[in-house]
Amino acid sequence: MSIKARFKVLVALLIIVISMVSASMAAAAVATYTYDELNRLKRVDYDDGTYIDYTYDEIGNRLTTATNAQSDTTPPMGAVIINGGAAATNSPAVTLSLTCNDANGCAQMQFSNDNATWSAIETYVTTKAWTLATGDGTTAVYARFKDTTGNWSTIVGDTIVLDTAVPTTNASPGSGIFATAQSVTLTCADGTGSGCDKVYYTTDGTTPTTASSVYATALNVSATTTLKYFATDKAGNTGGEEPNVHHRRHPADRGDNHQRRRHRHLNRQCDLGSLCLRCQWCRFHAVQQRQHHLEQPRGVRDEQGVDLAQRRRQ
Ligand SMILES: [Ca+2]
Ligand SMILES: [Ca+2]
User: Which ligand is closest to the CA of 168, given by its number?
Assistant: First the structure.
């Protein structure tokens, strides 16, 4: 083939190439075309920073077409989420969920608890174990990502409440002895922590668990009751590992040592002729005593010669 014929073929090829490139870029944004001294397409620059280089041999045949992304100036878009977006945690050991998007791919990432001191640059992955800064309260984690051409993303972050303090629970009225039924309320407090979640309780003396009844409204305590309870906060802390106890004792409960002592005291008062009207038990006892007096008149002695009425008083 003569040189002239080869030149015609080359021109035809160039026209085809230029047409194809033009067609492919018709729907794209701005592109800049560069030609060599032989008016051959040498390079196409796109507005996203990428470009295509074309090379030819000594007779005009195109040898290579290479897309070069080195001019990518667009940073990646990244995000970090702590513990799947949970509002609070009771442990500084957390899991970070990471996303990064870039036309040329994401390559590396870096983290910080204070947006000042950064961890070592590492290969980009989608999850990472991380340790929060010490101290309860709202705490942040910052992250940034680098694409394959070296562009760093803007710094992104997420926050979570670190709460390692257990909540406290209170019963009102507290443990005590009551003559009437009581309406007992259970209240939970978590200070500046994550906030109370639930209060669990039992009324049968068993140790409450998270499978026990959940407190909702005031409890009516009308008999001797052992009330045990504890609370959880929104960070998962369990308050009062030693369950609190709330007793309600009825005065007629003969199993209560305190009441027995009180009745004995009132009984002595009855013997002295006072306070008997305040105590049905005492009045009953006083009636018994009077009946005994009638049944055991003074002067009647037992086989040992002891006055029966005197022996009863001993
Ligand atoms: Ca990029
Ligand atoms: Ca707490």
Answer: 2
